[in-house]
Task: inverse folding
């Protein structure tokens, strides 16, 4: 779950930079115009978000 949390934080920081400054860090680091590596990073961040939703749901049910 650590990797999923890390990816969610990366995604959140990237969206924050986009919202505040119009700067897409992932595109800057891995190539703009949706390069293959950028698409992989975005996909992994999305999967991590879904994993966090599932983790939140199971944690919430336990309490």
Result:
């Amino acid at each position: 779950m650590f990797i999923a949390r890390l990816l969610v934080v990366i995604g959140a920081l990237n969206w924050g930079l986009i919202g505040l400054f119009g700067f897409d860090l992932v595109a800057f680091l891995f190539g703009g115009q949706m390069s293959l590596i950028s698409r992989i990073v975005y996909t992994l961040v999305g999967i991590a978000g879904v994993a966090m939703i599932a983790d939140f749901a199971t944690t919430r049910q336990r309490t």
About this structure: The chain has a mean pLDDT of 90. The chain has three helices and no strands. The CA atoms of residues 8 and 57 lie 16 Å apart.
